[in-house]
């Protein structure tokens, strides 16, 4: 409890009397300050008991009113006038009492032979006792939190003990922001404001935190981000002392879970090895997926190139947690994973493997998982160049290959073959007609339909394109050269 004016008045050793506004003795005393200035306001911070003997203060109505207004405006909670035989006043002057009543400022008098230092010591002794009591309460609450955490019940008992002690609701999310544990009265999912803070901490990692009115998010984990603590409420001074301890206890539990999951991760890595066996049948592949708890008609492979073997093991463990039913294993610095077709691994890769080259294979039947995984591994080179995970798409296989090429070489090849068309027709109509014809399977009618032209116009344009490029449209190799030049130009423009 904070020290109140009434507590000071009740102390017999201080000989304090109330001269004005006894109804306001419930104000807390944050400090005791002595000043003989006529305008002490600039030297106050608020909440003080200001003590004076009135040495320089004229005891007329105007001067006392100005003095009290200055003290009140500065936030002082009370005024104390020292009395004594050798002091300017032996009782509270009427103008000062009237001014204090008018302003609603409690006016106390300090009895003779009571030095101001005695009042100051009493104030700061009470504050020290309150701080000591707060620390003792914090230690006691910390013991309760530790007991809850050591009971083997997981995260929820610790969160319940925290809320019971502080009144602040709390829940824990995984690094992707999904709620994994909550107190008995906590939210099952973060609201929009909390979700935004969670995303900020997820990006910032262990060295970050985020706060908004009534919300606070703290990272959890030792060496890697294992989750986030979301606090909903306004922690008071006592609760603020405990947040770091709560974070430590929850981090230890998440790290314990991480270590305890190691045997299961090894088992699932073994399942992945069986799934990738070249001799596996479709029925056996289905059995492997069932053993992994992965109900999916199709799967896709994911390959990540980590900075080192240790980083690969950490990423594999994170992906195993983040992707429900997914199977992961490591081969040196490579992380291989097989996930259900309905799972989008991009978000997990962004969080757990930022900056690492990664390929995502096409969805295939479970028995062909090794094909998708091989496809994902083949995309690592493109991912290194692109700077982000690359997903295989059957309708863009040629584009993926062209994206691996040097931009200058691609542009030079396309310009060499298509340059005569550019020079003869700056509008690009000839090039567009040729590209549409090749994309439509060399169909004159389909090309005419797509471009809204007469069939004879299409034929005339293509004949002209053949003459300018020196290529025969009825020759397969020449058609491939033209198609490749057009795709190379598209790839160069994308780059």
TrEMBL record:
Highest taxon above the source species: Bacteria
Gene3D superfamilies per the UniProt record, alphabetical: PucR C-terminal helix-turn-helix domain
Domain Purine catabolism PurC-like: 7-125
Residues of the PucR C-terminal helix-turn-helix domain: 432-488
The name this protein goes by in its record: PucR family transcriptional regulator
Organism this protein belongs to: Streptomyces kunmingensis
């Amino acid at each position: 409890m904070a020290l109140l004016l009434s507590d000071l008045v009740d102390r017999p050793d201080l000989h304090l009397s109330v001269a004005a506004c006894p109804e306001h003795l419930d104000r807390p005393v944050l400090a005791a300050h002595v000043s003989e200035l006529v305008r002490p306001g600039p030297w106050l911070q608020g909440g003080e008991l200001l003590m004076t003997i009135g040495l320089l203060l004229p005891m007329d109505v105007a001067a006392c009113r100005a003095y009290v207004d200055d003290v009140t405006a500065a936030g002082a909670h009370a005024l104390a006038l020292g009395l004594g035989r050798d002091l300017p006043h032996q009782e509270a002057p009427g103008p000062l009492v009237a001014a204090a009543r008018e302003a609603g400022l409690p006016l106390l008098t300090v009895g003779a032979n009571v030095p101001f230092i005695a009042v100051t010591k009493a104030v700061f002794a009470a504050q020290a006792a309150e701080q000591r009591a707060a620390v003792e309460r914090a230690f006691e609450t910390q013991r309760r939190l530790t007991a809850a955490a050591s009971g083997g019940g997981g995260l929820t008992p610790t969160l319940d003990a925290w809320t019971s002690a502080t009144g602040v609701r709390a829940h824990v999310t995984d690094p992707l922001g999904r709620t994994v544990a909550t107190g008995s009265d906590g939210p099952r999912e973060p609201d929009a404001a909390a979700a935004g803070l969670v995303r900020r901490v997820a990006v910032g990692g262990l060295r970050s935190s985020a706060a908004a009115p009534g919300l606070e998010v703290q990272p959890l984990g030792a060496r890697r981000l294992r989750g986030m603590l979301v606090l909903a409420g306004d922690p008071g001074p006592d609760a603020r002392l405990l947040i770091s301890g709560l974070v430590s206890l929850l981090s230890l539990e998440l790290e314990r879970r991480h270590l305890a999951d190691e045997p299961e991760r090894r088992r699932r890595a073994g399942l992945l090895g069986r799934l990738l066996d070249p001799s596996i049948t479709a029925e056996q592949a289905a059995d492997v997926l069932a053993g992994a708890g992965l109900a999916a008609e199709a799967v896709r492979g994911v390959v990540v190139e980590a900075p080192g073997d240790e980083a690969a093991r950490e990423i594999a463990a994170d992906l195993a947690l983040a992707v429900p039913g997914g199977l992961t294993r490591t081969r040196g610095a490579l992380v291989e994973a097989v996930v259900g077709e309905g799972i989008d691994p991009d978000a997990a890769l962004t969080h757990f493997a930022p900056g690492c080259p990664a390929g995502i294979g096409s969805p295939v039947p479970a028995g062909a998982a090794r094909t998708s995984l091989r496809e994902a591994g083949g995309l690592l080179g493109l991912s290194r160049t692109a700077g982000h995970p690359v997903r295989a798409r059957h309708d863009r296989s040629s584009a993926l290959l062209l994206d691996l090429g040097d931009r200058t070489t691609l542009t030079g090849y396309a310009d060499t073959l298509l340059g005569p068309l550019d020079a003869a027709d700056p509008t690009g109509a000839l090039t567009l007609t040729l590209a549409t014809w090749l994309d439509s399977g060399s169909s004159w009618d389909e090309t005419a339909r797509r471009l809204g032209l007469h069939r004879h116009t299409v034929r005339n344009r293509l004949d002209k394109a053949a003459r300018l490029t020196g290529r025969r449209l009825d020759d397969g190799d020449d058609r491939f050269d033209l198609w490749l030049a057009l795709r190379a130009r598209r790839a160069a423009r994308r780059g």
